[in-house]
């Protein structure tokens, strides 16, 4: 079989063993093939270089910057097409009439006086017909151009040309860009050259031209270079790694250079993921209309709350693209991500993550650390109390679950002192129930080791067991939801499993946690609160906050507590953020809805929202001063034939009856988006989104098409 798929004629000969073919007639051997038959050609890197050199102008928060063409802040006044074309035609006819009157002498000969006064007599009386023709017809041409200039300005011919001429035929973004200078070309790595790493820059530029570099490679190496500039890594180590591995230098610990598949459009140079297109709607600011919507870590650092009913696109159009973007950032060494959702929620394939915790699934490779990887009993008790009974605390912002944390600390401290580990779920349930055997064994071990302070903690716990209002009963009932046969292999503290702890967020790790939503809804809500509490505690204790950390909670029902709201408020200064999605704000206690909307800088209301949910969004988005015009039209009645003719001409030009218009302009304060508009005026597949960056820049509520 030849390389083009045809069978050699010698192979079909009657002789079963074909004879070797001799050299060709010319005596020269064919060249050695550079690739095996059927191998696809290697890319030349032009697509990557075009992406790298594309324009990314500075833009307002949330604007997709790749290839963006800025628009003015205010919308220019647009003349109706009929009026514009009629005016242009009338201006042309007026100019033609003026020229005809001048040319035929109906207006006299005064218009040639400048030529007679300024041109010497010797030129006009030279006797050369060619010179005279050139002189007079040049003057005629100058007068005609002056008339065309005046009538063209009056008839707005320039606007007609821009709206209907070749400039309007050119597709958007088709403007050819001038190639950058070598010292400003990002493909040549000028920052490395200025620092003296010439060889590393040459290697990376060659790999980019050869098509061996990807956007993740560029972002990852740029992140490593930032570490060199900040002094965390030596320049010699960075240069050695680049010269050895080229575009594959400074790899992620997983060894991956890209995700198995991408379902959204990403721009790692700006760190954005495109979620849709800002609608061309009068309620959107003019410079946002038609622009792409891109979210990056500068916006996610203020946290995002998305509210919409089932089927409105929270997971497919918002959470999954954000999870995919953060996974790419993790491969580039810029971020760590934890995606939490029900099993089968569609948060991405398992191959896109480093750790997949499938709670309740017998084939899960990893386990979840119930205590968040801490060794401090008080910290572990606070986190566990928030997970177990955080939703039972007084929903007002000033309340907390400190009493439950105290009860847990009275048991966790003595148990860890004796066993050098925290209790498992069955052991903790027995201690909370006050079973005599485990408490007596724990007391004996503490007595033998002489730990009197911990004995006092245990004595206090035993005294409180006899009180009817002891919160340990509620804690025992809640921990019993995790003490089920389906969860028996999980939450192990003996060291026999591979528990994942959120203290690993110091590294660019990609984690997906599948909750057992089906059949264990209450346990799933406990685990969601547990992960949220562990996340806020872990990111606040990090030393390197340049690594962005983000938690995506696909269903935050029951996870919003007073302590959770306070934790979300602290994330912005910790270089972290959360993405919460809710079917309705009714899943949040009424006293916490305002603080939750205030704690998140980015708020999204999807289509299908209820009016009472829309009321909460309308209140947090506030009002704005707008200019309203009250127009009163009074039709003018013509009584003379000339007036009727003028009115008829005016109707033909403007398409409207002649009227006398009275306009009253007022400044009024109105809601940006009312509850009724949010409930009934948002089309399917759309959402209203307000944005805030970590630097404090704001974007007003925007109507966004999430399908664009």
TrEMBL record:
One of its GO terms (molecular function) is ATP binding. The chain crosses the membrane at residues 88-113, 133-154. Residues 1-46, 172-192 are annotated as: Disordered. It comes from the Bacteria. Keywords: ATP-binding, Membrane, Nucleotide-binding, Transmembrane, Transmembrane helix. Residues 1-11 have a biased composition (Basic and acidic residues). Residues 30-43 have a biased composition (Pro residues). This is ATP-binding protein. It comes from Streptomyces pluripotens.
């Amino acid at each position: 079989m030849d390389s083009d798929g045809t069978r050699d004629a010698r192979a079909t000969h009657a002789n079963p063993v074909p004879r070797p073919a001799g050299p060709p007639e010319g005596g020269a051997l064919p060249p050695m093939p550079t690739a095996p038959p059927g191998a696809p050609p290697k890319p030349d890197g032009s697509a990557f270089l075009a992406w790298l050199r594309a324009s990314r102008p500075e833009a307002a928060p949330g604007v997709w910057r790749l290839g963006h063409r800025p628009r003015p802040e205010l919308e220019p006044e647009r003349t109706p097409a009929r009026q514009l074309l009629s005016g242009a035609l009338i201006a042309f006819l007026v100019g033609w009439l003026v020229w005809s009157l001048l040319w035929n002498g109906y207006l006299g000969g005064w218009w040639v006086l400048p030529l007679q006064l300024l041109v010497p007599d010797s030129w006009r009386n030279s006797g050369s017909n060619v010179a005279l023709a050139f002189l007079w017809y040049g003057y005629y041409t100058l007068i005609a151009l002056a008339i065309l200039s005046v009538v063209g300005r009056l008839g707005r011919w320039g606007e007609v040309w821009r709206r209907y001429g070749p400039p309007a035929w050119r597709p958007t973004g088709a403007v050819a860009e001038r190639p950058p200078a070598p010292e400003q070309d990002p493909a040549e790595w000028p920052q490395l050259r200025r620092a003296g790493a010439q060889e590393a820059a040459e290697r990376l530029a060659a790999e980019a031209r050869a098509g061996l570099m990807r956007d993740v490679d560029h972002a990852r190496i740029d992140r490593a270079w930032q570490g060199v500039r900040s002094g965390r890594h030596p320049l010699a180590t960075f240069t050695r790694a680049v010269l050895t591995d080229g575009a594959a230098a400074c790899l992620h610990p997983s060894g991956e250079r890209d995700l198995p598949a991408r379902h959204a459009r990403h721009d790692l140079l700006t760190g954005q993921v495109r979620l849709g297109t800002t609608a061309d709607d009068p309620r959107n600011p003019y410079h946002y209309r038609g622009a792409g919507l891109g979210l990056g870590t500068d916006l996610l650092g203020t946290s995002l709350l998305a509210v919409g009913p089932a089927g409105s696109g929270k997971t497919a159009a918002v959470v999954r693209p954000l999870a995919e973007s953060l996974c790419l950032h993790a491969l580039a060494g810029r971020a760590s991500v934890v995606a939490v959702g029900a099993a089968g929620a569609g948060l991405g394939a398992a191959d896109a993550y480093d750790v997949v915790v499938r709670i309740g699934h017998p084939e899960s490779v990893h386990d979840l650390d119930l205590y968040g990887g801490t060794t401090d009993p008080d910290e572990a008790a606070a986190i566990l109390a928030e997970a177990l009974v955080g939703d039972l605390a007084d929903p007002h912002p000033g309340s907390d679950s400190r009493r439950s944390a105290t009860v847990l600390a009275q048991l966790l401290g003595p148990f860890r002192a004796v066993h050098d580990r925290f209790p498992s779920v069955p052991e903790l349930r027995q201690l909370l129930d006050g079973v005599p055997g485990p408490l007596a064994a724990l007391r004996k071990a503490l007595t033998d080791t002489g730990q009197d302070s911990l004995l006092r903690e245990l004595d206090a716990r035993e005294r409180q067991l006899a009180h009817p209002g002891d919160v340990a009963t509620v804690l025992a009932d809640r921990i019993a939801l995790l003490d089920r046969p389906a969860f028996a292999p999980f939450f192990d503290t003996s060291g026999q499993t591979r528990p994942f702890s959120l203290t690993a967020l110091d590294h660019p790790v990609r984690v997906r946690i599948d909750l057992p939503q089906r059949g264990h809804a209450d346990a799933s809500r406990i685990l969601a609160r547990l992960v949220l509490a562990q996340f806020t505690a872990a990111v606040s204790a990090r030393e390197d906050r340049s690594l962005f950390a983000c938690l995506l909670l696909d269903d935050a029902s029951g996870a919003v507590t007073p302590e959770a709201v306070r934790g979300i408020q602290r994330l912005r200064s910790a270089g972290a953020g959360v993405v919460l999605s809710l079917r309705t704000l009714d899943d949040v206690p009424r006293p916490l809805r305002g603080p939750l909307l205030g704690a998140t800088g980015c708020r999204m209301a999807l289509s299908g929202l209820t009016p009472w949910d829309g009321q909460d969004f309308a209140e947090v988005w506030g009002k704005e001063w707008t200019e309203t015009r009250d127009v009163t039209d009074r039709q003018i009645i013509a009584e003379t034939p000339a007036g009727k003719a003028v009115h008829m001409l005016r109707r033909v030009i403007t398409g409207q009856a002649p009227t006398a218009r009275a306009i009253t302009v007022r400044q009024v304060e109105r809601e940006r988006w009312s509850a009724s508009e949010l409930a009934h005026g948002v089309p399917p597949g759309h959402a209203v989104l307000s944005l805030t960056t970590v630097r404090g820049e704001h974007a007003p509520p925007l109507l966004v098409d999430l399908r664009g």
